[in-house]
Amino acid sequence: MDKPKLYGPYAHRGGFRFLIVQGQERTATPSAPTEERARQIAEAFLRKLVQPQVLTVGMVLDQYSDYLSLMNKPTSVATAMYRLQTLIPQRALPIKRLTARHCEDAYMELVKRQKPDTHRNALAEARTFVRWLLKRGLVESDPLVKIEPMGRRKKGKPQLHLDEARRWLSVAEKLAREGHDGAVAAMVTLLMGLRPTEIIERVVRDLDDGGRLLWVTSSKTEAGRRQMEVPEVLRPYLLKLKRSKLPTAKLFGDHWRDWPRRWVEKICKLSGVPKVNAHSMRGLFATLGIQAGAAPHVVAATLGHESPTVTLSNYAQPGSAEIAPAHRAVAALTES
Questions:
Q1: Which residue, 42, 79, 301, 305, has fewest beta-carbon neighbours within 10 Å?
Q2: pLDDT tens digit string along 305-330?
Q3: What does the alpha-carbon distance between residue 271 and residue 27 come to, in Å, rounded to a whole number?
Q4: Contact predicate 94/58, CB 8 Å
């Protein structure tokens, strides 16, 4: 780019100003009452133009946020940025000075105050961010390369036992009959295994074939885009939600993704069962499906997982796959 040049002073509105020309661009500086003051202002402008811009961590994080926004939902971007800023909090630090020591110290601080799942997620997010930096030449080397994730991730969530789940569902149905839409959303987590975000994003036209089919047209993974059979017990409640709404209106209305979660926990309290969350209900859905004899890949597809390994290791309770053959064997022996 051409070197900027300074022209002036020129009389302007009872004072003086200068003109900065850089290639085809022309910038007039603010007016000043004297030529000397106008020159000081113009020279300050000129110094900013010729001084190379120092990219800071904060500036690059903002660019990365814009990049993520092109391909991800706002909630996913917000989660990614939150994780990154817990591990790389020095926004004023020049990106070229983001060293391995900075990152290692920050990670060890996270290890002291966060659970393994939380700080390991932050580290995984940071690794993706650093790959983006390297690809664009914004850093010369990977400052995270020597950091080893610490602690052991928890696999799965505590799940309700069958009698507890039946009691929970009985209370949820009672609330649904009374007109509480949140109870219906909570039932969907257990009876269909949908993620909270998938529930709140469903629109009226997604409920199809007289309420027998629900289309999940957007999800966190490609495998998450699927068609699901609606259990008979849920059909009347979902059809009631659909009445008098436009096809593109939200089926459950406008809510944040923690809305189904709060209702799951509220029903736990009302039914007197241990407190679990919506993710746990997805796990129970997987456990019951595997125990009933459904193939792991079928349950995985229903949950929107790309691999049955994820379903078996992180969702279904250990031993679920072994129970199904035992059930079938007993059934065969006791058939008349």
A1: 79
A2: 566 555 555 555 555 555 555 555 44
A3: 70
A4: no
